[in-house]
Amino acid sequence: MSHVTMRWPTLRYTCLQGSYWACYCVIITFSSVYLLAKGFSNAQIGVLMSVSGILATLLQPLLSRKADHLRRLSLRQFSALLVVVELALGLLLFLLPGLFFQRVLYSLLVILVQLLMPLCSSLGMACLNQGISLNFGVARGAGSITYGVASAVCGQLVLVLGASSVPLAMTVLHLVFLASVLLFRVRGAAQSDGPAEVPPPAETSQAGRGQLRRLLWVLVGSVLLFISHNLLNTFAFQIVQPLGGDSGAMGNMLLIQSIWELPIMFLFSWMLTRRASRTWLRLSGLGFFLHALGAWLAPNMGVMYAIQFFELPGYAMYILASVYFVNEIVPSDQRVQGQAWFTMCATLGNVLASLSGGFVLDLWGANVMLAFATLSGGLGMVLLGVFLSKKQVAKLTAAREAAL
Predict the structure, then answer these.
(1) Are 153 and 28 in contact (CB under 8 A)?
(2) Residue 176's pLDDT band (cuts 50, 70, 90)
(3) What CA–CA distance (Å, rounded) separates 113 from 166?
(4) pLDDT tens track for 5-15
(5) 80 torsion bin: left (phi>0), alpha (psi -120 to 50), beta (else)
(6) Would you tell me how many other CB atoms lie within 10 Å of the CB of residue 129?
(7) What single DSSP character describes residue 333?
(8) CA 383 centroid distance within chain
(9) Most CB atoms within 10 A, among 138, 161, 227, 367?
(10) How far apart are CA 221 and CA 233, in angstroms?
């Protein structure tokens, strides 16, 4: 095996993760701000985001399969190509102001930024697999920080310059993101920057396909966890209102939530020296469940602030543990696909939460919606608990070795 090196790998990957999440923030978080200013109704925005999420879910396995079997481009080059497309789409928002073009362009932006998520994770894991020391948790924690900073800065830009500053922010951030991807280059390994040496899709073994079927219930459980998680976040304002909260209280709650993500991000590499990734992934289900249960039972905003602690053993732990779990369990020629499966769970959970949450809120109110979120989180916790047991993971590992 050839010697591979990279100067300051964690710093470079931190820049990549940070710029990605800043782009994600501007495209997703500020979608309503921008589209309302362009004449879209709330209903039209909801449909656009839901349809884009569904399309991203359908496209993720196809794109990731392609990324696993690249022949003329490296994964880094393929990712950079998608960033260039996103950069062009953001620029076209300035040039094509018509409602139809805005709808198409923004939908494509929403789809592509979600498709890039598993590719970014795979780039980091590819370095670790080649023996390059890289702290994935620190880099992902920086992503959470830049998400918050980008939200604050873009919010001020909108106040000063109006909603037209959203495409401007997209353009600047995508240039930074593109530079970060291009600079994330491994030296001394042709396979890192040239065509990938992997078998074509048709040669994927029967054992490998059997392994993917064994992961099905883990993925179903993950979707249920993300339905619970996204119900709490998408409808945060409706949740805090019955407790006497307002938009300021909602902002404080989400800020506390994001702060609790940081300890797990920075400590996760050490945690992996104590227990395997599947243990932490299994435990994350309990965190999701307790977060939803606490929100359902919270009598006031003080308790609501306190239960944001469960973001640490829930969402934050899941995000990191799932990336490492895929890298350890899935055969090398299916790792990008594996990252995409778990990203699909988050995307599908978001879509289903948006659709079901609005319906339940209109009919029965926030308390019933929180009960539904608790039920969904509980079922997801049980599925991860059962299908990530030591016995089940041993079967997955055996299938991986048979697929090699």
Answers:
(1) no
(2) very high
(3) 15
(4) 667 888 899 99
(5) alpha
(6) 13
(7) G
(8) 21
(9) 227
(10) 19
